[in-house]
Recover the amino acids of this structure.
């Protein structure tokens, strides 16, 4: 697997994620809610960033904006060299298929599909030639090769999250976004999942943006951003990474 | 990847292949078929109903085609009333192939030993020559050939029913006109049974020689004489060639008053009647498909709602909206197509099923076949209705964004899909109406039915909406069960609208049919008592009429006898135009087809009102004049001063319309479309028609004695009991109403499926509600009661609306279309109310029992 930035046609110094003055206001029945209030952020390629902050601070919304699942009310977003301005929903979907993998707190596996079918799904959508060969390898990478034909309901929470991680990394995205990936798991299983996530990131050279409210988890990343009330209130480099 | 490369990727038109999307759809559908079963069932039922009607029509038409020759008794049947088909015509026919002569009439047979009403009976008499039957075989119970039995002596073959009526056995003798006939054998079947007119009595088969000796075929008698022709290569004869022979004969013998039928239409008007009725039933079938469509829409919406997170996941993983749309379009098609296929299979199987179960009871053998038109129509309607109801929910897939995975939408979603989906939905509706119109020969009826169904559906949608609003507006009742029931009706996911839509129309049609049926039966039965005559007496000779009147006055003092001279003749031309060239509206075509009764009178008959022109002087001696039925004159474009030509006994008579009359046909008194001035027809040989009306009904025995006396004294006179005639008509109406009832039953079944689907989709929400209520201390009994109250309230409201709509429709149909008095029937109301309650409670309580069995723990955890 070629993971160098050079091979991907981008300078090592160019940020792979870049947000300029991003604001997000959502409409609710009680009136508009300002979720993000002017975020500036640049994330270097192949780095790992932890995003922390209290509930409702805007962490997940920030992740959604980066994933192209939510359009900012104002400001600019650029991921993997592609500015989001003017891109339609479908172009953003294709961009995700090409460059962004997402891991959710609630796994969001398709319940009617087996583990391997779930993992193969994004590959099939991007017309990969051998989606099931790659999917099986990805499942073996997360230690679930033997559970490939099981449905989500037949897997434990930890196993489900490992399938979700395999699904996110199988298309070899350049950016991996993880939203509270251990939020629905017990401490031991959560620890295993995090170890797996960081191993894969290191091996595949992906950029990892990890949203968590667990400070110890965030400390395993190279950089920690603290979000509060829709703004970045702290941005620190962390010496010891996982 | 450079941004340029990415843009190229983004601009790439092709996404995953259809095959891949198909595989993804198959995986996504796992376990979902059960949730979409309503979709399959709705499509299947609707398509089956439409296909069954089409297949039955095809089978009937194929039956007519295949059995046409046999039913007609040849390739061509030339007939006329009163007089034999001219020798010259018979000679032309004989030069073309084998011919045979048949005479048919109604007559009385008398049992010399019979007592008190068992002494005489009306028969459908058929007299045949030695060539009969030209085609097929007459089956007798004793296995002998027909000709061997009836040839050379006064012997008859008889329907066993006559033996039963008269208490006779094979070998006994009866009086037929002036001849004593031996009932020599019983009839099992005759090949050309259908070609006669409506049957009022059992069959009696004799030879033409015996008919001659009976004296029943005298001048002016209502005998229909047939010459039948069997062509040597008849089966292979082109339809046009066949038609040409008939037309040629009519042209060569313009004044002969010939009635021509060929094997393509052995029963005149039957094909047209079948076609019209089948079109009507197809529309009813389409209605059930449309109602099923509500179930389709509801099931697909519920299914896609459950799939929101899966759709969002696909979007997050890189699926475009078009990919997702294709996946769910494939899933829907995977269910719609088998639904259509199953519907086609069931529908096409119906004629075989009916043939196998009713077989011998049918007047014509069904010839099941797969009609391409029928199959295409079933597929087209199935696809269009599916598109009509699926495009809307599918269009809303686009609204599901990946953001759903992170949070529920904050703002309220728009309920309308984007314009392309709306446009496609409207196009599907327009196509549906277009196909319905294009496949119908009666556009007005089709438009009425479509507008009616649309209007009624809108009405029931309004009812559901109002019910929901009303439930929310009434003050909260003290009883918790009732309060919960009202909240459920008023709240989101309420069953009110869907129930109203799905059951309302079916119930409405059922009420309409029941009330129309009741009104018709009432009109034909009790409604006529007092005004309607008890007997029609046919073929009373001119010299017999005075004696017959005297005898009735003496023997039945409480009765009235009305008499009129009667001949039969056919219209040849109106205002100089041959009737074949006149394009009359359908309701007036019967006047131009075949023979009509004609009479002449010095004074206007009772029950008639002159609305235009004036009646002639009693001693009018100038130009022949005629009085015409006003309504028919309007439909045929005739007015006072118009001329018409009728062929009577082989002579063309031209007369000018002197006046127009309105006629009270319902009273069944003697009346005619055309009444001529006496100088026009008095010279022709004619007989009398009479009606006998009792002011006070006599005892059965007295009535029997009178009739026996009359028939013995006047052997050539035929007495038809009006009650029997009405029963014969009732039988036909009952069969038609039964078919409509069956069709409306299918509509109701479609509604029930929709209702079941609606209750199934609501089950999860209702279970959660019940669980919360139980956590809060509600007893099962209370929850059950609240559900019962909810179902009962909705069902009652829908039933009452259906009764109102049905009653209004029945009133309109009886008063304006059928012109009979409307009769309200509480039984129809009770039936509809009970049916609505039963359906709602059966399906509802099935769901409720599951709701009550649910374990609170699992549901609270899941939420």
């Amino acid at each position: 697997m070629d993971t160098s930035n050079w091979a991907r046609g981008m300078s090592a110094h160019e940020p792979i994620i870049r947000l300029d003055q991003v604001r997000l206001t959502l409409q609710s029945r009680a009136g508009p809610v300002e979720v993000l209030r002017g975020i500036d952020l640049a994330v270097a390629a192949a780095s790992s960033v932890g995003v922390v902050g209290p509930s409702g601070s805007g962490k997940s919304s920030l992740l959604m904006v980066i994933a192209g699942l939510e359009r900012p009310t104002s400001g600019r977003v650029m991921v993997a060299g592609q500015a989001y301005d003017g891109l339609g929903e479908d172009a953003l979907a294709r961009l995700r298929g090409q460059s962004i993998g997402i891991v959710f707190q609630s796994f969001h596996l398709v319940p009617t599909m087996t583990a391997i079918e779930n993992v193969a799904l994004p590959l099939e959508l991007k017309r990969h030639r051998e989606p099931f060969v790659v999917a099986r390898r990805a499942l073996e990478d997360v230690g679930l090769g033997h559970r490939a034909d099981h449905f989500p309901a037949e897997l434990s929470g930890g196993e489900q999250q490992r399938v979700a991680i395999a699904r996110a990394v199988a298309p070899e995205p350049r950016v991996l976004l993880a939203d509270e990936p251990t939020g629905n798991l017990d401490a031991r299983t959560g620890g295993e999942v995090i170890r797996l996530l960081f191993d894969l990131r290191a091996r595949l050279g992906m950029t990892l943006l990890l949203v968590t409210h667990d400070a110890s988890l965030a400390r395993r990343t190279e950089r920690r951003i603290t979000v509060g009330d829709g703004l970045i209130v702290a941005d620190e480099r962390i010496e010891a990474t996982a | 990847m450079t941004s340029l490369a990415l843009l190229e990727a983004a601009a790439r038109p092709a996404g995953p292949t259809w095959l891949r999307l198909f595989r993804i759809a198959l995986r996504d559908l796992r376990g979902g078929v059960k949730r979409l079963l309503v979709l399959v069932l709705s499509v299947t039922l609707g398509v089956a109903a439409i296909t069954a009607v089409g297949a039955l029509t095809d089978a009937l038409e194929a039956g007519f085609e295949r059995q046409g020759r046999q039913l007609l008794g040849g390739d061509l049947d030339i007939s006329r009333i009163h007089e034999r088909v001219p020798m010259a015509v018979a000679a032309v026919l004989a030069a073309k192939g084998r011919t045979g002569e048949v005479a048919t009439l109604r007559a009385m047979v008398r049992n010399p030993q019979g007592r008190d009403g068992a002494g005489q009976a009306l028969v459908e008499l058929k007299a045949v020559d030695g060539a009969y039957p030209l085609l097929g075989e007459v089956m007798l119970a004793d296995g002998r050939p027909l000709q061997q039995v009836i040839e050379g002596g006064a012997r008859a073959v008889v329907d066993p029913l006559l033996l039963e009526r008269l208490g006779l056995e094979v070998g006994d003798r009866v009086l037929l006109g002036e001849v004593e006939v031996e009932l020599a054998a019983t009839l099992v079947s005759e090949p050309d049974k259908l070609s006669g007119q409506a049957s009022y009595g059992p069959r009696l088969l004799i030879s033409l020689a015996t008919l001659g000796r009976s004296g029943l075929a005298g001048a002016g008698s209502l005998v229909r004489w047939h010459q039948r022709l069997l062509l040597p290569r008849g089966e292979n004869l082109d339809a046009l060639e066949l038609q040409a022979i008939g037309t040629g004969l009519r042209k060569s013998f313009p004044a002969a008053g010939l009635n021509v039928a060929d094997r393509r239409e052995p029963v005149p008007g039957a094909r047209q009647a079948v076609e019209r009725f089948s079109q009507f039933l197809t529309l009813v079938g389409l209605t059930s498909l449309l109602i099923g469509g509500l179930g389709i829409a509801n099931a697909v919406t519920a299914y896609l709602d459950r799939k929101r997170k899966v759709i969002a996941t696909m979007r997050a993983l890189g699926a475009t909206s078009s990919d997702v749309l294709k996946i769910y379009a494939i899933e829907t098609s995977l269910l719609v197509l088998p639904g259509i296929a199953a519907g086609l299979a069931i529908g096409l199987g119906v004629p075989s099923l009916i043939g196998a179960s009713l077989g011998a009871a049918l007047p014509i053998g069904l010839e099941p076949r797969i009609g391409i038109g029928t199959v295409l129509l079933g597929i087209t309607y199935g696809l269009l209705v599916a598109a009509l109801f699926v495009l809307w929910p599918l269009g809303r897939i686009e609204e599901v964004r990946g953001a759903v995975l992170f949070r529920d939408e904050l703002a309220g979603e728009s309920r309308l899909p984007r314009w392309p989906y709306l446009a496609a939905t409207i196009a599907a509706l327009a196509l549906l109406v277009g196909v319905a119109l294009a496949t119908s020969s009666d556009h007005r009826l089709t438009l009425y039915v479509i507008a009616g169904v649309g209007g009624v559906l809108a009405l029931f949608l309004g009812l559901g909406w109002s019910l929901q609003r009303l439930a929310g507006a009434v003050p909260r009742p003290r009883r918790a069960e009732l309060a919960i029931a009202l909240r459920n009706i008023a709240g989101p996911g309420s069953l009110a609208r869907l129930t109203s839509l799905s059951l309302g129309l079916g119930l409405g049609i059922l009420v309409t049919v029941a009330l129309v049926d009741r009104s018709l039966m009432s009109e034909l039965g009790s409604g006529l008592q007092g005004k309607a005559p008890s007997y029609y007496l046919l073929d009373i000779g001119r010299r017999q009429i005075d004696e017959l009147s005297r005898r009735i006055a003496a023997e039945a003092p409480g009765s009235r006898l009305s008499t009129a001279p009667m001949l039969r003749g056919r219209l040849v031309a109106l205002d100089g135009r041959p009737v074949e060239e006149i394009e009359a509206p359908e309701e007036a075509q019967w006047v131009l087809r075949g023979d009509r009764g004609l009479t002449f009178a010095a004074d206007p008959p009772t029950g008639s009102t002159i609305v235009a022109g004036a009646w002639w002087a009693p001693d009018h001696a100038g130009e022949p004049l005629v009085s015409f039925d006003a309504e028919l004159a309007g439909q045929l474009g005739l007015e006072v001063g118009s001329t018409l030509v009728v062929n009577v006994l082989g002579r063309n008579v031209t007369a000018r319309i002197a006046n127009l009359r309105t006629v009270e046909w319902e009273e069944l008194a003697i009346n005619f479309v055309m009444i001529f001035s006496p100088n026009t027809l008095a010279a022709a040989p004619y007989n009398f028609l009479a009606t006998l009306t009792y002011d006070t009904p006599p005892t059965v025995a007295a009535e029997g004695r009178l009739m026996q006396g009359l028939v013995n004294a006047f052997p050539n006179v035929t007495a038809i009991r009006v009650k029997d005639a009405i029963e014969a008509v009732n039988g036909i109406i009952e069969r038609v109403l039964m078919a409509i009832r069956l069709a409306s039953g299918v509509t109701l079944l479609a509604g029930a499926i929709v209702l079941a689907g609606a209750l199934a989709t609501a089950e999860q929400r209702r279970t959660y509600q019940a669980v919360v209520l139980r956590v809060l201390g509600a007893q099962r009994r209370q929850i059950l009661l609240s559900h019962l109250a909810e179902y009962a309230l909705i069902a009652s409201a829908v039933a009452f609306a259906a009764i109102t709509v049905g009653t209004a429709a029945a009133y309109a149909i009886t008063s304006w279309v059928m012109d009979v008095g409307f009769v309200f029937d509480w039984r129809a109301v009770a039936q509809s109310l009970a049916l609505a309650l039963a359906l709602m409670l059966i399906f509802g309580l099935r769901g409720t029992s599951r709701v009550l069995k649910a374990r609170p723990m699992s549901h609270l955890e899941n939420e």
